[in-house]
Amino acid sequence: MKRVTNLLVAVMFGFWVQTTMAQRVEEKMPELVEPKTEVDKKNTIGVHIGPGIGGVMAGGGTPCYLSAGIDYSRRFSERWSFSIGVEQLGFLGKRNVGDVQKNGETIVINDRIKNGPHWDITSIPVQLKHKFGGLVFINFGTALNVFHNYNNTKVGLGWSFGVGFEREFSNGITFSLNPYAGSSIFVQQMEGTNDTRYVKLGVSLGTGYKF
User: Fold this and answer.
1) How far are the Cα atoms of 102, 108, 152 from residue 105, in angstroms, in the given order?
2) 47 phi and psi, to 5 degrees?
3) Are the C-beta atoms of 182 and 198 separated by less than 8 Å?
4) In this model, does residue 129 exceed pLDDT 60?
5) In whole angstroms, what is the distance from residue 128 CA to residue 14 CA?
6) Residue 166 and residue 137 in contact, taking contact as beta carbons nearer than 8 Å
7) Strands, DSSP E only, in the chain?
8) 175 with 166: CB under 8 angstroms?
């Protein structure tokens, strides 16, 4: 329940930040902004899910993962939009959930095997998106990532780049397919652990609603 509350707070804060930034872009660079009309839909709320494969982290399980998230975006010109969201990344496979790390050593206190996904990474991505015509787009940006596993917590900054396809219908519903690549460096937050570099490749399936 606490994690759900934190995610909702993060989304609300991101909504406020994104709206404020988009308004300032419109004020500072009016030449990039389309004339406003009553039927113009600049906002999109969406959800996405998809599989991927990444570099193995210490205690991170198998390289395969599943990601799922929610995001909000605002279009500030004909082809450019800005988005922010919250995403969870879970590693697949079996894991001994009785391991506890202390001073860099693993101590088994309860030999209990649990199947994945193990939702180890919480991410807050911030991205720019550029559309080519009505179907193809590219998206790129950065993200604040938190890796949490037992008593081990690491915080990292990452980047991502993707090329995708999006179909928009007259009722405002959108569907997208977005292959992407990304990387993140996690900084150790406890004694005895090392900084970790993480690389991932994946594909995201998403749907959204424009308003």
Assistant:
1) 5, 10, 11
2) -130, 155
3) no
4) yes
5) 14
6) yes
7) 43-54, 64-75, 80-91, 94-96, 99-102, 105-108, 113-115, 118-132, 136-149, 152-168, 173-188, 196-210
8) yes
Between 203 and 12, the more confident residue is: 203
Q: Structure tokens of 87? A: 């995403």
**What digits encode the pLDDT tens for the residues 169-207?**
988 999 999 999 998 887 665 445 555 677 889 999 999
Helix (H, G, I), strand (E, B) or coil at 144: strand
Domain of residue 168, CATH code: 2.40.160.20
Taking the C-alpha atoms of residue 145 and residue 137, their distance in angstroms, rounded to an integer, is: 24
Question: Which amino acid, residue 168?
Answer: E
pLDDT at 39: 46
Closest to 182 (Cα-Cα) out of 137, 126, 132, 130 = 126
Domain that holds residue 8: 2-210
Could you tell me which residues come within 8 angstroms of residue 102 by beta carbon, excluding any fewer than 6 positions away? 151, 192
Structure token pair of residue 187? 């900084």
Q: What is the DSSP code string of 41-91?
A: --EEEEEEEEEEEEPPPTT---SEEEEEEEEEEEE-SSSEEEEEEEEEEEE
Structural domain total, the chain: 1
Residue 202 to residues 50, 57, 72, 98, Cα–Cα distance (Å): 7, 16, 20, 29
pLDDT in tens, 80-97: 999 999 999 888 876 655
Kindly report the pTM of this predicted structure.
0.70
- Report which of 70, 73, 68 is spatially closest to residue 52, judged by C-alpha positions: 68
